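Entry 14. Ran structure prediction on the chain below.
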Amino acid sequence: MSINYPILPDLDEDYADYILQLNQDDEKIRFVTIMNIADEEQPELLAWLHYAVLHDPASKVRDLAAARLEGWEDTTSLHTLAQALTDSHENVRLAAAQSLSEIKKAESAEYLATYLQHQDDFVIGSILRAIKELRAEHLFDDILQHVQHPNPLVRKEAVSTLSWLQKQQGLAALAEIAKNDHDAEIRRIATGGLGASQSLSPEILAALESSLTAEEWQLRVEAALTIGKLKVVELENILLQQLDDSYWQVRIAVTRSLGLLKAKSAIAKLQENFQHDISNLRKEVAIALGEIGGEQAQDILLQHAEDPDPEVRKSIRIGLALIQEKLNAA
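Output, structure tokens:
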């Protein structure tokens, strides 16, 4: 086995022993040495971490080095991690992907953009995940090309990244995906992405309605929350029907959104849900009634003021206070 870690020029003598340890055949020695080098947090030592990621024969050393490159956003570190996404060992690939997912600088997206054209699906998905929170608007077209990718893992990351961009030009694609993708989690992500809409097209309304009545309860939750966020009064009646949903998680999301819509048509159904065993649902009912306001909502809250759960009673007081604020402002 040939180990050839490079000799670094102009190296401080305090680090001179590292090169001897790095070129040992014993991978345990190299592992500890890479750990110590990473702990130094010195840019002049990064070349050894780069070499370890790409060339050390031991996967555990490559794995460690890839993990310890997290936080370094110089171009060489970024490209080293991107290349490690095709390592023969899964743990190394995952470590590199995780380190890339922590990048913070906007310019890092530009350095990594070329990998969006890679032939390896894991590479593409990992780069999409890495640049997501950077909101790299200039890569809109590169991201959009992957939202119909045949691999659902790539598609999921592309849809998530497109949603983070919050660009109106991407909403038509998100609406189509929310309604038609065969993967429920991808539809859920796309549905949430529609929350950036500044105007409601027929396609967006149709997508939200489709998600609200989908078989998967997680998708119904996302749709209900998005409808409330956008205050989609056009879907109030369909939203109201979901107060009978068999999943309390859906009822909570629906209740919250009906409150945001100030839907007086929901008061009777909300009162029914005050009898539900799940206290978190009763809390949402109390707040929603407060948001809706009016004498009927106030009377219902007063009727349940002695709810056995202290958190529900607190929410009832908040709901009553909201109604009182409206009365005072009138």
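The mean pLDDT is 97. Will compare against last week's run tomorrow.
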